[in-house]
Please model this.
Amino acid sequence: MIKRILKILVIFIVIGLILFIFIQFIPYGKNHTNPPVVSEPNWDSQQTRDFAKRACFDCHSNETTWPWYSNVAPVSWLVYRDVVEGRQRLNFSNWQNSRLREPGEIASVISEGEMPPFQYLPMHPTARLSSAEKNQFINGLTSTLSR
Model:
């Protein structure tokens, strides 16, 4: 009975490894180009920009830093999707074409902890803003968007 269970376990592990290797050849999530920076908001201060760079730019700008795990499927698929969707929703590097400009909506997602998302923070601890930093950032973004 134990030999049978071990045999089944080994088969599952081998199949899992084969699938893992196979999915590495799927090209989705491998395009790690950063388009040029076209325009940025007229920041109210360097500090506001620094907060945005620290907590937002990896997904919401054309200045993404692609970590090593962004090359390993299936994680690469998730990272790539997050960056593509983030840039479509709000792109600090292509500001005139960004769709999200409502200060209240941006303030809300930051203050409620929706951004940066929880799955991003373990690998990017510097993106975690303290309560005081969040308040400063929200005030700075509100001022920036009012310009």
Observations:
- Helices lie at 2-23, 46-55, 57-60, 75-89, 103-111, 131-145.
- Residues 56 and 116 are 7 Å apart (CA to CA).
